[in-house]
Amino acid sequence: MPLLPRPPLILASSSRYRRELLLRLRIPFDAIRPEVDESAHDGESAEATALRLSRAKAETIAAQRPDAVVIGSDQVAESEGHAIGKPGTHENAVVQLRALSGKVARFHSGVCVIAPQTNRERQAQCEVVTTTVLFRALGDAEIDAYLKLETPYDCAGSAKAEALGIALLARIDSDDPTALIGLPLIRLVTMLRAIDYPVLPR
How far is it, in rounded angstroms, from Cα 197 to Cα 9? Predict the structure, then answer.
């Protein structure tokens, strides 16, 4: 029996890191930027923020494309109860890495998959994968050298673990290594299989 055609797949994100990760699955997809306020709510935990925003992004695009499988994702990082944002500049990244030197940071990566519209209510699967990272004790010279080599100013925590930033870390604890980069592919594939979206032929 021939396989039914896949419904369109849409990544509700403008992140190049998430696009690059999703390309690993070799499934055609479109990426659409969702217009969502990404501010945290008062008293909201970092994990709850990541989950809420992942769902909000997916729902925003799913409302526009009822025919598609929509993936929403968001990552919120924290250390010692303080949010870790994207540094934006070299100076901010230096301050950030100095603060993270020898410390533990947690990266909460949310993912939400919304199935196409059918005769029943649309399904939504949403989860958060948390990655715990221990930074080495970092000196100013290596912080400066690293930042000039990699310029990770669009990355929360100022360290690209998938590249040279791994040299700044002492340990990474996670059950999904892609979660730290921004999109938990192990969890995503599980969600796609749950709605019978073929990732690999069965």
Answer: 10
Residues listed for the chain: 202
Long-range pairs of 158-167 with CB within 8 A, sequence gap ≥ 24? 158/87, 158/93, 158/96, 158/97, 158/100, 159/97, 159/100, 159/135, 161/133
Q: Is 134 exposed, middle or buried (0-12, 13-18, 19+ CB in 10 A)?
A: middle
CA separation for the pair 88, 74 (Å, rounded): 18
| 7, 77, 121, 146 from 73: Cα distances, Å | 19, 14, 21, 28
State whether residue 48 is helix, strand or coil.
helix
pLDDT (mean) for 139-166: 94
Q: Which of 30, 37, 74, 173 is catalytic?
A: 74
- Rounded Cα distance between 52 and 178, Å, is 20
Pairwise CA distance, residues 200 & 191, whole Å = 14
Can 140 be counted among the known catalytic residues? no
CA 125 vs CA 78, 86, 148: distances in Å: 24, 27, 40
For 68-156, strand residue ranges (E) read 69-79, 82-84, 104-114, 124-135
List phi, psi (to 5°) of 69.
-85, 125
pTM: 0.90
| Gap between the Cα atoms of 31 and 40, Å rounded | 24
Give me the mean pLDDT over the 126-150 stretch. Answer: 96
* Model confidence pLDDT, tens digit, residues 171-193: 999 999 999 999 999 999 999 99
